[in-house]
Amino acid sequence: MGKPTGFMEIPRRDRTEAPVADRVQHFREFAIPLSEGEVREQGARCMDCGIPFCHPACPVNNIIPDWNDLVYRDDWRRALEVLQSTNNFPEFTGRICPAPCEAACTLNLTDEPVTIKTIECAIIDKGWQEGWIRPQIPTHKTGKRVAVVGSGPAGLACAQQLARVGHQVEVFEKNDRIGGLLRYGIPDFKMAKHLIDRRMAQMQAEGVAFHPNSHIGVSTPARLLLETFDAMVLTGGSEDPRDLPIPGRELKGVHFAMDFLTQQNRRGVGDSLPNQAPISAKDKHVIVIGGGDTGSDCIGTSFRQGALAVTQLEIMPQPPEKENKLLTWPNWPYKLRTSSSQAEGASRDWAVATKTFRGENGQVTALQLVRLKWHQNQQGHWKMEEVPNSEFELPADLVLLAMGFVHPVHAGLLEELGVALDGRGNVEADTERYQTSIPKVFAAGDMRRGQSLVVWAIREGRQAAQAVDEFLMGYSDLPR
Ligand SMILES: Cc1cc2nc3c(=O)[nH]c(=O)nc-3n(C[C@H](O)[C@H](O)[C@H](O)COP(=O)(O)OP(=O)(O)OC[C@H]3O[C@@H](n4cnc5c(N)ncnc54)[C@H](O)[C@@H]3O)c2cc1C
Ligand code: SF4
Predict the structure, then answer these.
(1) For a FRET experiment, which of 78, 281, 344, 357 has its CA 20 to 30 Å from that of 205?
(2) Which of 181, 288, 400 to mutate to test the pocket of ligand 1 (most atoms within 8 A of CB)?
């Protein structure tokens, strides 16, 4: 390490954020980067701990200590090379990854972890700014054709890896734009969409063909792809949302989170939505049901649209403020976290269940709720029971259901292929070969593992590409 005593001398510093009052006026990113000098100083905090637990904790196994050291030594170009050897899209993860690497950082045991995610983002942003990131055009073509169905981070990572070893790769996407949840789920203020467009341009130069508006198994039979391609990779995500079938569910003003978020992301690029009733939080009491990333994105979007108040409800009990690091490290600890959107003024309530959506003239006006008590049974499983006489009501003009996704959509693509599903309804494929029950059909990302994270999707896309390459060629030089 460049500075063996860096961790003792330099306190952790991280990106800051624009003040809430300013940032809720627009939908742009609001993180304020550190200066180059500050990032280098933060790199110097990496302590040469011997066994870098950050490395296996990162799903793409970023070689974190090496790029920390290179950044400290001002060798950004080599830091970029090391970073790109494991991660196709560090500008995505550098913005929206929850950073399990930082929880696993050895320095986190006794102090605060290295600002790994911020350093990752600084390396890649500088790489683009300096023009160092170029298409990696293959020197030879294999003559093999691969169809990738779904253009989220799993499909994009898979397609890029396969194109770089000379296969002809075509990406089919049912939506009108490429990017999956990066495009239409995650709001602009968390990740600007021009970052996807820039990668698409790079991938097109590397030989990838994109086919938006191609709903495989619906507008185009999957059979056609099976007949014309040497391999097919299913990266269609986990898109079936968990519903809340209680009295009043049919009322106007109760929506799935993704319907709300997609509309806003479309408005952001100037789309008119003539065939859809607009869903807006303006001047409304908004209730978000569900405490994860999707719920947070609904909160931030609601504030930017001009909501009167936003309340987020979670069925689970409130987590502890702090973890016991000696018990949890290097694992991802269960503890209270506050997202930047929640910090914009949302009220949060835990251990609450919704019993009824109440309405007037067909429009939701309130939620009837009950408090829950959680306890562990003898097998260690958590069980909940309603607290007697704890019913209460909250006013609501807009309710957003953000309770996760049960599994991929089965109708269309998966049913036509007749692909085997696992016990949770995801496409069955192991993580060695990513092979489904249908010959030459592979699966990766949320469609295979269930709803997860962008960094896991990138990992699976890369590993599936290696498995497909080996299937097509009998060997593969692609890294896993
Ligand atoms: C609102 C929201 C916010 C999130 N925020 C974060 C975050 O901050 N950080 C993080 O790490 N993760 C976050 N996640 C999770 C993350 O976005 C996903 O885990 C990741 O995008 C999964 O990637 P994927 O490529 O497997 O699938 P997706 O991104 O879901 O992409 C699948 C694509 O396949 C297409 N498709 C499906 N079926 C077909 C078909 N038959 N034919 C053609 N195309 C098809 C879909 O239209 C979609 O574009 C969030 C998820 C949501 C919903
Ligand atoms: S991808 Fe996520 S886990 Fe890996 S180094 Fe970046 S922030 Fe950490």
Answers:
(1) 78
(2) 181
Residues 316 and 350 sit within 8 Å (Cβ to Cβ): yes
Distance 203 CA to ligand 1 centre (A): 19
Pairwise CA distance, residues 58 & 209, whole Å:
30
Supply the residue whose CA is at minimum distance from atom 7 of ligand 1: 96
Q: Measure 307 CA to ligand 1 centroid, in angstroms.
A: 26
User: Which single residue is written with the structure tokens 């397609």?
Assistant: 159
Q: Which ligand is nearest to the CA of 300?
A: 1
**pTM summary value:** 0.98
Give, using CA atoms, the residue closest to atom 2 of ligand 2: 99
Distance set, CA 213 to CA 151, 178, 230, 234 (Å):
11, 9, 22, 16
Residue type, 425: G
pLDDT tens for the chain, residues 1 to 480: 668 899 999 999 999 999 999 999 999 999 999 999 999 999 999 998 999 999 999 999 999 999 999 999 999 999 999 999 999 999 999 999 999 999 999 999 999 999 999 999 999 999 999 999 999 999 999 999 999 999 999 999 999 999 999 999 999 999 999 999 999 999 999 999 999 999 999 999 999 999 999 999 999 999 999 999 999 999 999 999 999 999 999 999 999 999 999 999 999 999 998 889 999 999 999 999 998 999 999 999 999 999 999 999 999 999 999 999 999 999 999 999 999 999 999 999 999 999 999 999 999 999 999 999 999 888 888 899 999 999 999 999 999 999 999 999 999 999 999 999 999 999 999 999 999 999 999 999 999 999 999 999 999 999 999 999 999 999 999 998
